[in-house]
């Protein structure tokens, strides 16, 4: 009987009284305590009749109980499908319709009706899911799984506006966790300051899986808050974050060598870290932030070295086992030339759930995945991302696909068309701006209302610009680059 993720991440800790979770107030939960919680969560899945391959959608606030459900799914072969709690009811209805879960676990405050069985779990651990764990008991007995069996779906929005479920296997997640533990030299002595959300690859797989694999522990913060992080840092050895975490820390009084000097490692990813932020961080703390690059579909692809030179403005070298190439129209390009970044390796997903055509567009027959990111590889092998070939905005580490926002705004009365773009934002890196063409003076409150009803908060435009017409090229294609240039000072 084998189960790759259970055997590597969970089984080695059976009976261990070492701490896994430390909260900011000094409380701790041991590995054994966590495995007990996970076992009881697995008992609920059993009672509810979930079998290997079934999907479980989880849309709850960050909590240890939610993490225990993830562990329960790994052991039972149930596919874990986490969703951002900020998603609105129409967004959730789409994901549930697509994933066809056997069970949804939701915050009790959410009242949108779903046509599937629902249990509830609040941020403080109350709800029908918790009540069910008390009644069922249960242990973390694993079911047999292979490296190609599915462990999780993570939804990523698409350029056409329809979200795609990226299917991730036991082999994908485990190979990536191993590569990161090796590259970042994570050990059982590490204490990771965990302030990321756990419904994305960064906070869940990069942060949690590496911690479990190394037998390390985590200071568990419900969300990022700069002051709380500075206060908790003395107990930590490592931290992972999106660039906004680091710019916010730099704006925080008391964040200096005294607060950060003892740390072993700061990692940044999910969005570009400005070389200027890297330099300011080093001047303030003495630490060179280690930048790495990944995607939902591939996990992590490259990382600056832990021991070697961390080059600001680059995302470092391919991780062990992962190949990276840059291609142009005629195939792979030589060092220094800019083209499409493609990756191949055990970290690359097998495809999008029930979307063979979309999968074939991005995943070639030889296993090369087209990232949609433009970049170059220098003669030392360091990868630099110079832009995106895909129409994507990354705001505070969250991806916003303009098409999805445009579809909502275009449907509002009086709107002729819209173009949604990202422009530099001092806090979020990029901020979402909607450029609107309307029949008469548009009611911007109405547009904001439509966005609020249908789109998660981070996708909603933070500014609206009304124009007579959108700039187009000779082929009639909207010139977003021109709009970005024209509006680049919006949040300055
Ligand atoms: C919150 N808001 C945002 C964002 N977050 N708007 C744009 N972009 C955002 N990221 C909204 C809030 O709803 C609020 O709206 C207003 O902006 C200000 O909120 P604020 O309190 O400042 O925000 P916050 O709650 O402090 O959150 C900011 C954050 C958070 C801490 C940076 O967004 C965050 O944790 N980001 C991490 C994302 C992440 O984990 N990405 C990894 C993806 P209003 O004023 O209207 O109420 S995985 C990935 O990308 C790959 C695999 C990889 O390589 O890692
Ligand atoms: P997602 O699949 O939603 O997690 O987003 C993945 C995208 O985030 C990548 O394709 C890149 O465009 C971007 N990304 C992740 N890490 C970095 C980084 N270190 N620098 C620049 N872009 C990044």
Structure report:
This protein has 492 residues and is α/β, with parallel strands linked by helices. It is 30% helix and 26% strand. Bound molecules: methylmalonyl-coenzyme A and adenosine monophosphate. The site of methylmalonyl-coenzyme A has 21 residues, from helix 7 and strand 13.
Which percent range fits the helix content?
25-40%
Computed structural class: alpha/beta
The major beta sheet can be summarized as: 9 strands, mixed
Radius of gyration over alpha carbons?
Answer: 22 Å
* Beta-strand segment tally: 26
Average pLDDT level: 96
Give the ligands present.
methylmalonyl-coenzyme A, adenosine monophosphate
% residues in beta strands: 25-35%
Instruction: Measure the end-to-end span.
Output: 58 Å
Shape: globular
Main sheet: which strands, in order across? 2-1-10-9-11-12-13-14-15
Number of helices: 15
pLDDT < 50 runs, ≥5 residues: none
């Amino acid at each position: 009987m084998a189960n790759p993720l259970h055997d590597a991440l969970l089984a080695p800790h059976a009976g261990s009284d070492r701490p896994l979770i430390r909260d900011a107030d000094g409380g701790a939960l041991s590995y054994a305590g966590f495995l007990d919680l996970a076992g009881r969560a697995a008992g609920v899945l059993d009672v509810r009749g979930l079998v290997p391959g079934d999907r479980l959608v989880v849309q709850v606030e960050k909590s240890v109980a939610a993490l225990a459900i993830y562990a329960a799914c790994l052991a039972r072969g149930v596919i874990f499908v986490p969703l951002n709690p900020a998603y609105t009811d129409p967004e959730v209805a789409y994901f549930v319709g697509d994933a066809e879960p056997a069970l949804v676990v939701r915050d009790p405050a959410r009242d949108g009706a779903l046509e599937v069985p629902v249990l509830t779990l609040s941020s403080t651990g109350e709800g029908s899911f918790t009540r069910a764990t008390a009644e069922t008991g249960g242990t973390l007995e694993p079911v047999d799984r292979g490296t190609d069996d599915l462990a999780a779906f993570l939804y990523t929005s698409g350029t056409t506006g329809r979200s795609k479920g990226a299917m991730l296997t036991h082999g994908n997640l485990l190979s990536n966790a191993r590569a990161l533990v090796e590259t970042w030299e994570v050990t059982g002595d590490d204490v990771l300051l965990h302030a990321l959300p756990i419904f994305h690859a960064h906070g869940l797989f990069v942060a949690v899986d590496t911690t479990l694999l190394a037998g390390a522990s985590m200071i568990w913060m419900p969300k990022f808050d700069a002051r709380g992080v500075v206060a908790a840092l003395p107990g930590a050895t490592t931290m992972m974050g999106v660039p906004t975490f680091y710019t916010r820390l730099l704006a925080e009084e008391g964040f200096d060598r005294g607060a950060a000097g003892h740390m072993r490692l700061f990692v940044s990813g999910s969005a570009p870290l400005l070389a200027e932020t890297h330099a300011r961080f080093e001047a303030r703390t003495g630490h060179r932030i280690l930048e790495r690059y990944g995607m939902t579909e591939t996990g992590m692809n490259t990382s600056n070295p832990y021991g070697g030179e961390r080059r600001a403005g680059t995302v470092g070298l391919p991780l062990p086992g992962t190949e990276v190439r840059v291609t142009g129209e005629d195939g792979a390009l030589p060092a220094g030339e800019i083209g499409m970044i493609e990756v191949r390796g055990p970290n690359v997903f097998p495809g999008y759930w029930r979307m063979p055509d979309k999968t074939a567009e991005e995943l070639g027959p030889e296993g090369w995945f087209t990232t949609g990111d433009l970049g170059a590889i220098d003669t030392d092998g360091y990868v630099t991302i110079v832009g995106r070939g895909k129409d994507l905005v990354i705001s505070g580490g969250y991806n916003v696909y303009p098409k999805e926002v445009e579809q909502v705004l275009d449907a509002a009365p009086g709107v002729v068309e819209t173009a949604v773009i990202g422009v530099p934002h001092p806090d979020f890196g990029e901020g979402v701006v909607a450029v609107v063409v309307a029949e008469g003076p548009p009611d911007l409150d109405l547009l904001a209302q439509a966005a609020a009803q249908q789109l998660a908060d981070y996708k909603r435009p933070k500014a609206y610009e009304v124009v007579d017409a959108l700039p187009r090229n000779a082929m009639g294609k909207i010139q977003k680059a021109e709009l970005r240039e024209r509006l680049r000072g919006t949040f300055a």
